Amino acid sequence: MATAPSSPASGPKLNHIGLPVVEYRGGKSTLCAGCGHNAISERIIDAMFEMGVQPEHVIKMSGIGCSSKSPAYFMSRSFSFNSVHGRMPSVTTGALLGNHTVQALGVSGDGDTASIGVGQFVHLMRRNLPMIYIIEDNGVYGLTKGQFSATADIGSKLKTGVINDLPAIDTCALAIQLGATFVGRSFSGDKKQLLAMLKAAIAHKGTVMLDVISPCVTFNDHEGSTKSYKFLQEHDEAINEIGFVPSFEDIEVDYDSGQVFDVQMHDGSSLRLRKLLEDYDPTDRAKAVGTLMEAHEKGEILTGVFYIDTKKPSFIDQLNVVDEPLATLPESLTRPPKSALDSLMKSLQ
Amino acid sequence: MATGDLALGQEQGSTGARQRVINDFSINVATVNGSGSQSANSVLLKSIFGMGVPVSGKNLFPSNIAGLPTWYTIRASKEGYVARKRDSEVLVALNPETAREDILAMPAGGVAIYETSLDLKQYRDNVICYPVPFDKLTAAACTEAKLRKLVKNMVYVGVVAQLLHIDLAVIEKSVQRQFAKKQKVFDLNFGAVKAGYDYAQTTFTKQDPFYIERMDGTAGKIIIDGNAACGMGAVFAGVTVVAWYPITPSTSLIEATADLLKKFRVTPEGKATFAVVQAEDELAAIGMVLGAGWAGARSMTSTSGPGISLMAEFAGLGYFAEIPGVIFDVQRTGPATGMPTRTSQADLLSAAFLSHGDTKHVVLLPANVKECFEFAQAAFDLSERLQTPVFVLTDLDLGMNNWMSEPFAYPEKPLDRGKVLSAEDLKRLGGFARYRDVDGDGIGWRTLPGTEHPKAAYFTRGSGHNDSAGYTEKPDEYIAQMERLGRKFENARKLVPAPVAFQDGASKVGFLAFGTTDFALRESLDQIKNEYGKSVDYMRIRAYPFTHEIHDFVVSHERVYVVEQNRDAQLASLLKLDLPGEQVVKLRSILHYNGLPVDARTITEEFATKEGL
Question: What is the spatial distance between Cα A40 and Cα A46, in angstroms, rounded to a whole number?
Fold first, then answer.
């Protein structure tokens, strides 16, 4: 068993499957300089590299929008599907039905998820499909030049002076209520928290829903915006500090057991959540949703892992399919024999 | 009104001479939706079939759970005609709401069987009436009051059997099959059949001329509905992913598919080699189909008009990103919600061009249950070969009604999984370009997610792309891809099912049609021959894009009548886009779109009028 990323005598650092980080990189980003989405792409690269995920085993799925373009900017060795607006959940569901042995990573935006795609989002969460679903959340439509999205906070102001007077959809509260089994929120500017969260997400078998606040430097980073870098730095309240130890690493961490939630992940990794919010229990759904609702009242933006359940069967488990991908089963397993047709014909005579 | 039927009534009225009508009439059972008459109708149909008489059944039902009128017509035809007949000679009137209307609509000389208390005799003096105290007979045959509504249906089976001379032993066998292995249910139902049979035998002297007589017209044949046949085809095509959303009249196609998958596609360890998912809507259903097709699975959905409309955006993605997937469309009437339980052929144009931009699709057009089975398989092969969504258009008439057929043949050819590169191929080639036309047929090679080679991955997108699947907005790169897609579609002409010429070279006029119009049109050809002494050529189209034989057929005739079941002459329109200008003027249309399946008489009459016969 390989352990931590190692360095050969010369050359770049290799991960535990022997790949350098460059094998996880993608094309040059065409998003704006300083866009939060680019920072998220960087963390995805780091997390996949550090977790030693085989790039060819990853499918990068997206809908339409700035966020949905970003899969082109990381992991070029992975398969990618930039589908239609708001419908990435169904395409990913189909792809995993065809081949459930791959790791699915979906990248969506707040418009793609909370407006046009909210129907598919809702049903994806219900199914607990094994995938990582990231919302790169900036509260505005970038490609159409800065209209509010449904995650924009009430009272938030556009550059043009328009005030948002409708309440925000809290995608994390929604996901917890609907049945997602790993739900968290982070900030594209918080490297450490986001990286730990992504690594834990890779180890989870079930729907991971991560809402990552990702400021739009062009249309939503001004005074009066509640999704600007400045606003996040001032109002970001982490509910827990995330420590993640992959199964292939053998590291002892000292901690005060009363202050830590230790979660055993499906692949043998450990997720250690050090409580920052008093008495916060990330396995209590009702309390998790309540805490998020209270934070809205107080104008706080909570981050951290809000909810985790490693026991609930995934959609693929429930379908009880064979271990091999359905896509490549041989004809001998997918076309019934002649005797089957003969018996059917007899029964119809 | 068919003149033959009038003559029959007059003959009877005047002379009383009884010329027997054997194995050539229709029975119309008028009941209330939700009364459970389906089993009884099925027993009657299968018993006539069991007597060796060619038979077809049609359920004309309302969009309603229970309470609205429904009619089931059974046509016995020694000639083997299975289209809808405009008139039914035998009426079983069990719905008080429609009974008056039902008997008034009958041809003279017909037979009416009805609940005594309805007293239908008062409305017609040229219809032979057999009043039956159904409620009384049912009460005697069935002690449990709550079952009487269902059992009552079996009483009319008995009455009809006795009057038409259907062998009671054959009925018994059909009832046994209907209630396989449930002795108590069989006893109750067959008891009711007997009660009806005995009542008719002791009460009535046969006054009508209609008889079912044993013949040898069904030996070796099967009875199945089109939806079940499509499902069976999909299963024998090795489908692995099914995503769907309930909609009439397509739901039973998925149910049949799922039943067969559970029966034949579970490993000895109890694991499924398939996944069936009921999606949240048709958008998600087609999204799952394309996701699975992209991953390399044989995937399908089934829907009807409204679902087709919802699938439009994804259909364009499938076309442009070149992803396989099979979409069954069991057509019902539109526009909008239309008449959900009535049939039509009005989705042809929307399927062929589903989605915005320059999108076009391969559409297969089965006309009978055997082709449902065969084209379902062909659709998966074509879809993977051509890397594009393929539509299979049936309709409510074909999909939800029982049809007689030759047994289906086991597929001879192995599955065609199309152009897929493995990791070994990539090792040999050193890489690939997803959308490059290396073989000159317009079809690139693809890889499947998870293929273990550093050069296996590519970026699938609905946005502009070059032949390496890279994003592009360059005019020449866009044009190159669009032209290649055009060549691929041209290539599809050579791969889709060729038309069937039932008769060619005998006449200067010809018929073109597709799908279920075939049943009525073939009967109409005989009518035209018998009544006008004219032989008319007929070619049945089985797919879009059109193969060259269809062009040749038009070229070799002076006038071509395109017969179809929609208002806007959709097949003729599609032909006009395809044919050279000087050929277009030869096309004439015969259209039928009232929600009921077209009948032969309608075609014959309109043809005769237009031809001045």
Answer: 10
Task: Return the sign of the alpha-carbon dihedral for residues A12, A16, A22, A28.
Answer: negative
Of B343, B366, B363, B344, the closest CA to residue B353 belongs to B363
* Residues in chain B within 8 Å Cβ distance of A329: 238, 240, 273
- Mutation target vs A (from B263, B264, B446; most A CBs, 10 A cutoff): B264
pTM: 0.95
Task: Return all residues near B141 (Cβ < 8 A) that are at least 6 apart.
Answer: B151, B155, B188, B191, B192, B194, B195
Q: Do B288 and A123 touch (CB under 8 A)?
A: no
Is the CB of residue A323 less than 8 Å away from at least one CB of chain B?
Answer: yes
Give SS3 for B98: coil
Using CB atoms, which residue from A56, A92, A349 is nearest to B450?
A56
What are the phi and psi torsion angles at A65 (to 5°)?
135, 180
The tokens for B486 are 């055009």
Q: Parallel, antiparallel, or unpaired: how do β-strands B69-77 and B24-32 relate?
A: antiparallel
The answer to whether residues A102 and A58 touch, using CB atoms and an 8 Å cutoff, is yes
Give B238-285 pLDDT, tens digit per residue: 999 999 999 999 999 999 999 999 999 999 999 999 999 999 999 999
**Cβ contact, residue pair A72, B232, below 8 Å:** no
Residues of B whose CB is below 8 A from A334: 238-240, 265, 273, 298, 415
Question: Which neighbouring-strand residues pair with B510?
Answer: B537, B560
Report pLDDT for A254. Answer: 57
Put simply, whether A12 touches B (Cβ < 8 Å) is no
DSSP E strands, B490-585: 500-503, 509-514, 537-541, 543-544, 559-564
**Structure confidence at residue A255 (pLDDT):** 56
Instruction: Report the residue of chain A nearest B447, measured CA to CA.
Output: A79
DSSP reduced 3-state for B378: helix
Strand boundaries in B218-344, DSSP class E: 222-225, 241-244, 275-278, 299-303, 325-331
- Closest of A90, A102, A101, A53 to residue A75, by C-alpha: A53
Chain centroid to CA A241: how far? Answer: 18
Instruction: Check A87 against B458: CB less than 8 A apart.
Output: no
- Of B498, B540, B497, which is closest to residue B519 (Cα–Cα)? B540
**Mind telling me how many Å the CA of B177 is from chain A's nearest CA?**
9
The 10 Å Cβ neighbour count of residue B30 is 26
What values do phi and psi take at B243, rounded to 5? -125, 135
- Whether residue B4 has pLDDT greater than 50: no
With a threshold of 0.90, tell me whether the complex ipTM lies above it. Answer: yes
| Element holding A264 (H helix, E strand) | strand A260-264
Strands (E) located in B107-214: 111-115, 128-132, 210-211
Subunit contact A79:B283, Cβ cutoff 8 A: no
- B236 and A336 within 8 Å at the Cβ level: the answer is yes
Residue A335 contacts B where some CB pair is shorter than 8 Å:
yes
- CA-nearest residue to A74 within chain B is B459
Q: Enumerate residues 6+ apart whose C-beta is below 8 A from B114.
A: B91, B92, B93, B94, B99, B103, B120, B129, B130, B131, B132
How do residues B543-591 score in pLDDT, each as one tens digit? 999 999 999 999 999 999 999 999 999 999 999 999 999 999 999 999 9
Chain-chain contact of A84 with B313 (C-beta, under 8 angstroms): yes
Residue A299's pLDDT is what?
87
Q: What is the amino acid identity at position A24?
A: Y
How far is the C-alpha of A207 from the C-alpha of A135, rounded, in Å? 13
Residue with tokens 């209630």: B179
Residues 6+ apart with CB under 8 A from B203: none
Inter-chain touch A325–B415, beta carbons under 8 Å: no
Spatial contact of B529 and B93, defined as CB atoms under 8 Å apart: no
3-state secondary structure of A328: helix
Q: Which of A4, A120, A118, A110 is nearest to A67 (CA)?
A: A110
| pLDDT number for residue A107 | 98
